[in-house]
Amino acid sequence: MFRLFNTFGRKLEPFKTAANRHAAIFTCGPSVYQRAHIGNFRTFLFEDILVRYLEYSGFTVERGMAVTDIEDKAIREAEKRETTVKSLTDRNIAQFIRELKLLHMKVPHYMPRASDCVAESVGIIKKLIGKKIAYSHGGNIYFDPLKVREFGKLFGLNMSKWPKKKRRFHKDTYPGIQWNFGDFILWHGCEISEKACWDTDLGEGRPSWNVQDPSMVLRHFRGTLSAFCGGIDNLYRHHDYSLAILEAINPYPMSRFWLHGAHLFVDGQKMSKSKGNILYTDMLINKGYSAQEIRFFLMYSHYRKRLNYSDKAMKAAAERLRDFRNRVKMIGKKVGSAKPEESLLSNTLKTAFVANMDNDMSVKSAFDAMQNVLKKIDLSSLTVSQAAGIIRTLRKVDEVLQVIF
Hints:
405 residues; four-stranded parallel sheet
């Protein structure tokens, strides 16, 4: 039975869907004011593994990914580069999709842009105003968390600490992993940039980041999602904001499962421009690593554990993958045109993979268990049919891992 750690409740739970083996999954996506780095791709990779393993396990999966193409940062970056927001974000979106494919990740069925879902954002905000959960102030529109029950329930926020004095937070995002104890913005009045304004029933302006994910979810999904995924940093503010907004206007829970991936550090430090330690895929390729080796490094650790990049760790991961692939090639040389046999060896490999993946997608444990099985195989006594059966099993496994062949 496939079990995942549900952030909502903080426990392992059997994965179940509302529909019969049909999983509806929505994930946070890139903020395309800049290029995605390998830390971003680590998050997108654990989500890719989730989709692929669900399909391996017999589910059909429908996946959406939010593309944040209009926000404070995008406006300022476009102004800095003396270009339009659309030109800036179009270029970064195209780069992002190329790198998804480079790292053997499935392109989601839906990749809505926030700028294409303004009408949905306006509709949501109008409903919230009608329920007196949202209100106008100074040309902006804000959400009052005190007007909804169990606000902060995903994070486990202690609402007794909420300040009695009214406070409003008007930026799309704030630095650091912390909570803003006050009302959060839903709609920016047309002040920051004329290029980022829409003429709507709410007046001229643009939707804030906080309402964009809900608008993109509603464009493509109805009913409770099977899973909503993102980085651990989104557990502060962002996901509880999205949950509160959607559950305030819908009569059903937003998602059955909430999954959060841990960060990637570089030599023990967070990646940042100020530290000069941001890594991109082409930087690793220029060091001689293949796209599959980069993918393997990023997934060769449990998705809920912090991963640290170092040249030594990257080299060790690449060598481990090469050893595995070389062993598989040696077995493959024995196959010829033999008909695959479902032997004890192939079943042991499959069991090693499934048992670990069923335990909260433990990719590293699954890979190590399979490698141990392969090392113990006596190639001299291996029949061609057994070899064919092993290769067939590994090809099926590689529909998930995408690093073996």
